Amino acid sequence: GEDVEQSLFLSVREGDSSVINCTYTDSSSTYLYWYKQEPGAGLQLLTYIFSNMDMKQDQRLTVLLNKKDKHLSLRIADTQTGDSAIYFCAETSDRGSTLGRLYFGRGTQLTVWP
Amino acid sequence: GAVVSQHPSWVICKSGTSVKIECRSLDFQATTMFWYRQFPKQSLMLMATSNEGSKATYEQGVEKDKFLINHASLTLSTLTVTSAHPEDSSFYICSALAAGTYNEQFFGPGTRLTVL
Predict the structure, then answer these.
(1) What pLDDT does A1 receive?
(2) How far is residue B49 CA from its own chain's centroid?
(3) What is the DSSP letter of A36?
(4) What are the start-end ranges of the E strands in A1-114?
(5) pLDDT band at B14 (very low <50, low <70, confident <90, very high)
(6) SS3 for A82?
(7) Interface of B with A (CB under 8 A)
(8) Which residues of A touch B (CB under 8 A)?
């Protein structure tokens, strides 16, 4: 089945940049997503990128996609303590009978130190 | 923006009882809703896909008779955990696909179930 991998932990100092990495195996991925989950809460969509794009920037967030290597990254500039959360990488494809089904990584716990 | 609500946000029940969790799309129609289960510090595990007006599609290893899903309208799906046991304690999250799209999926805030 589809496999999405992420490192589990990342710690940074406030004001530094954070880079969270993700790899996936599905070559037919169409959209790739980054979600943020704060303790006890549901998932908040941060950004997504279509598979034919290399980069997408949205304020402090930059998404880079290397489709050849099936590697996705999320860079958070000027990381703040409020950015501390779990970040999930997810992908979806046209393959399969369930349109819109997401495949999630295990999540990266980002801790921001003041 | 699109909002998905879940009710209740948390529930504590005795072993052997049944618990119903509601997932509602508040300002859009959702032909498809997904139910996930999340254990502490784990990723989301897809349990089933709920399509309005038809039977839910369950993932392998998920007991359909234990986790009853009903998607009676374009704005409401329910998950009923029947004869709950302590091992069913978990965080249950639903998401909804906006009708007419396949990439806009909106998540509910989750329901924390604790079975004593």
Answers:
(1) 45
(2) 9
(3) E
(4) 4-6, 9-13, 18-24, 29-37, 43-50, 55-58, 61-66, 71-76, 85-93, 103-104, 108-113
(5) very high
(6) helix
(7) 4, 6, 32, 34, 41-44, 46, 49, 57, 93, 95, 97, 101-103, 105-110, 112
(8) 30-31, 35, 40-45, 48, 88, 92, 97-102, 104-107, 109
